[in-house]
Amino acid sequence: MNVILLLASFAIILAGALLFTNAIEWAGHRMNVGEGAVGSLLAAVGTAMPETLIPIVAIIGGIEGSDEVAVGAIVGAPFLLATIAMALVGLSALAYARRRPTGRKLDVHVETLDRDLLVFMAFFGLALLFGVVDLPAWAEVVAGIVFLLAYVVYVWLTLRGGGEVAEHHELDPLIMDRRKERHESPAPTGIIAIQALIGLGAMVGGAHLFVHELVEIADALGASAIVLSLILAPLATELPEKANSFFWVREGKDSLALGNITGAMVFQSMIPVFVGMVFIDWSLETNAVVSMLLGLAGGAVAYWALRLKGQFGALPVAIWFLLYASFIVFVTA
To answer: Distance between CA 178 and CA 306 in Å, rounded?
Structure first.
């Protein structure tokens, strides 16, 4: 029964994310910011919400073992992004090289991706350092606030630099807009707000169910909650949406595919870490440390791969899969 409820929590979280993200995109459109950098930031908040809510709900819930679930969700998402998600991009470029206009070469703005990867490695590395060094509680809180402010500065600099304007694309219909004339007129603000609140509520409820059932299953199996959280939370919340990058690369939308991943890596290395440092004891156990080290290695491989004449060849892809597989072997051995 616990497994069924856990699967149900995945479905609820993803359904809520779909409603919320769709509403956020329409909100950006109504504010005339959907096509530029601000719109991209709004979308990023929407897609990052599920994996950010899991640790928050775990901390607020106060269930025994929930802190482990929170830490697993916080450090597991960047690890998955820096390994499996990157591997999907490289695999897609290799698999569809003949149909792509640029073949195996990725058409991306390397300077932007370099910036994201360097910021990710710097702050994820600091998060690792602070997690293994015995800091007083006040120092952890201060460090967490610095992470939050650093992300605000990152966003400000991105906006000040203008950022690349996204290609125009037609919005998917607002899911809850059932008016007969919905194709002729913009979605009403009220319906957008209601859908966003329902989506947010579904994600919060699904996250609460996920944390509860994960702790129950861990107890039943005699396993560590953090191990299950490190593996299951990112797979449930990150991988489905980042799988879009596979198809974007196939269609030649390389900047969109990689920017989606590196932008999320920056967000995940700052905002959820801020939550962990401020609200729980940021002391990392071995499994979390190993996943973060492997995540940093995956980021370094991506930085190196961008210099291979713009190609994510077979070697980087193999390394990313190997990094993820090695963690699975480590925690199950």
So the answer is: 45
Alpha helix positions (H), the chain: 2-30, 37-61, 66-80, 86-95, 110-132, 137-160, 189-221, 225-237, 239-242, 244-250, 254-268, 271-279, 286-305, 314-332
Which of 234, 207, 215 lies closest to 65, judged by CA? 215
Residue 34 has pLDDT above 50, yes or no: no
Residue 181: pLDDT band (50, 70, 90) is: low
Letter string b/e over residues 81-100, b meaning 16 or more CB atoms within 10 A of that residue's CB: bbbbbbbbbbbbbbebeeeb
Q: What is the CATH number of the domain that holds 219?
A: 1.20.1420.30
Cα–Cα distance for residue pair 333/328, rounded to 1 Å = 8
- Judge contact between 13 and 50, C-beta under 8 A: yes
How many structural domains are present in the chain? 1
Domain that holds residue 121: 2-166+187-332
pLDDT band at 259 (very low <50, low <70, confident <90, very high): confident
Reported confidence tier of residue 200, pLDDT bands at 50, 70, 90: confident
Residue 171 lies in a domain: no
- Residue 39's pLDDT band, with cuts at 50, 70 and 90, is very low
Rounded to an integer, what distance in angstroms lies between the CA atom of residue 238 and that of residue 321?
Answer: 16
First to last CA, the chain: 27
Residue 172 covered by a domain: no
pTM for the model stands at 0.79
CB 134 within 8 A of CB 127: no
Q: Which of 110-124, 227-241, 262-276 has the lowest mean pLDDT?
A: 227-241
Coil, helix or strand at residue 105: strand
Cβ-Cβ contacts under 8 Å for 33 (sequence gap 6 or more)? 39, 42
88: tokens are 């999907």
Mention every residue, 6+ apart, whose C-beta is less than 8 A from residue 48: 264, 267, 268, 271
